[in-house]
Amino acid sequence: MNFWEYLESRHQQLLTDAYQHASVVFQCMVVATAIGVLIGILTYRSEWAGSLATTVTATLLTVPALAMIGLLIPIVGLGVPPTVIALTLYGLLPVVRNAIVGLRGVDPALVDAATGIGMSRLSRLVRVELPLAWPPILTGIRVSTQMLMGIAAIAAFASGPGLGNLIFRGIASLGSKNALNQVLAGTLGIVVLALLFDAAYVLIGRLTISRGIRA
């Protein structure tokens, strides 16, 4: 059976795995973005706090994915829970770092002007600082998503969802007639999903970032 015949015969399962893979990455990115931006907001005004937040999230990223998931299995079990926790932790660094950089890069004159017209600190943050910091934050989200697309494949080690199951099954059955097809289908599926997500982020950027800020 060649690769195209394999895709045709397994297309329903491939679509299901692709949906699960995209779903878990999307959900983890939503959580990582919320936590990462919040950490950025809480730490960007302080040099040491910002450095601490960046160092801690960077340290989490240095832990091998298999080790991270392996450590989580005795605590939360197999399946979705260790996958979600691991991916969320891995997705924090680019979001936290870019949120801090973006918020620190806002022109102080604009913040002073907002203060001068009577805006509260929360209003300045929501209506002035975060919109101006959004481009680098979105870049951080894009980087995190690309990383998580690949890392999510390792979740198959803990019986997690997604295309990694195809890759692991193919590797485990090397020498069988469909082993290479499974690995190739899983790998190409992840690449296609990563490209689709990135294209979606480009569209979001065009819709949410004004021309003046992009310039």
Automatic annotation (TrEMBL):
Belongs to the binding-protein-dependent transport system permease family. It is found in: Cell membrane; Membrane. The chain crosses the membrane at residues 24-44, 51-73, 148-171, 183-204. The keyword Transmembrane applies. It comes from Streptomyces lusitanus. It comes from the Bacteria. This is ABC transporter permease. It is a multi-pass membrane protein. Residues 18-201 form the ABC transmembrane type-1 domain. Keywords: Membrane, Transmembrane, Transmembrane helix, Transport. The keyword Transport applies.
